[in-house]
Amino acid sequence: MNASAEHEPEPAADAPAPADDEPHAPAPPRPRAPASMVVLATLAVGATLWAAQALILPILLSAFFALIGNPIIRGLRKLWLPRFAAALLVLIGGLAAAGLLANQLIEPAGEWVRQVPREMKQLAPKLREMTKPMQEANRAAQNIARAAGGESTAKPVQVVKTELNDPYKSLTSTPKYVASVLAVVLLTFFFMVYGESLQRNAISLLPGLRERKITVDILHSIEREISRYVLTISLINTALGLALAGALFWLGVPLPEALLWGTMAAILNFAPYVGPLIGMVTMLLMGFVAFDEAWRALLPAGLYLVLHTIEGQIVTPIVLGRRMRLSPLVLILALMFFGWLWGIVGLLLAVPMLVCVKLVLARIEGLEKWSKLLE
Q1: Cβ burial 17-52 (10 Å sphere, 16+ → b, else e)
Q2: Fewest CB within a 10 Å sphere: which of 146, 195, 233, 334?
């Protein structure tokens, strides 16, 4: 036997395991951006949304109208109607309804625009009579201040603003408005016809079959719920506008003018809190213009308040349930932000977009708590 083999040392029992059997080291934490970068990115996104509103708003309006039409298209598809024909029928029906409504409203709206300066002059004595006690109290306070020697002799500075009227401004802006309306109509049609196939093609880019199936289920449920919500809230607002128009017609307001104010109430109701507040003030002014007696002048605003309370506290919670309810604070913040960002259109789109975000967060695993934050 070989002597060197006899004296070869045996491996120790507590020798370390091979490197392959060692436990993996914990993954390093994901790097997080500093707060300053998050703030700058948020400001950049906001500036981009404001600067690109001429491009973004037609797309958002088109998607909004397509969401209203999708449940109707699904109903027509059950009658073996092709999607192209169903979308075309829905679009033509919507344009026809909007055209008939505009034909009924354009004359009273133009008449009110022409009469506003004269009616406001007639309204001034009524308002002065109502505010007479406040004016007398103000004069008494001024007399007391004058007697005490506290009245300032400095004259207020008057600022004179000059504005250069461009005679070609309306001529150059009209084609832009017409192009925006045509873009909204065409995009709405394409969203209704090709939105489903675009969604399917985007899902096919996912790597695994299981991921595709889960994504399809989530997107279909979200699309159905959002479409149902937008269509339902549109029908509720339309019913509110018709009820207000019927109440005003019962008070003696001509039918075209009653339809005008009902349409205004239906549109403003898409912006909670802010819209009804504007509607209340408008109904109050309209009542003082249309009626001479004080109690009759307050009736339109009172009827509007009653109808809005019934809609907001009874009808909408029963029809939509608690799942679609949003925090009033979050609603006000969203209305302020989107109203500042995009004006009237932003006010109308703020709530539907917020509901869309809430439904998406509620359906994505790991983000359910964020949806609870909006309730």
Answers
A1: eeeeeeeeeeeeeeeeeeeeeeeeeeeeeeeebeee
A2: 146
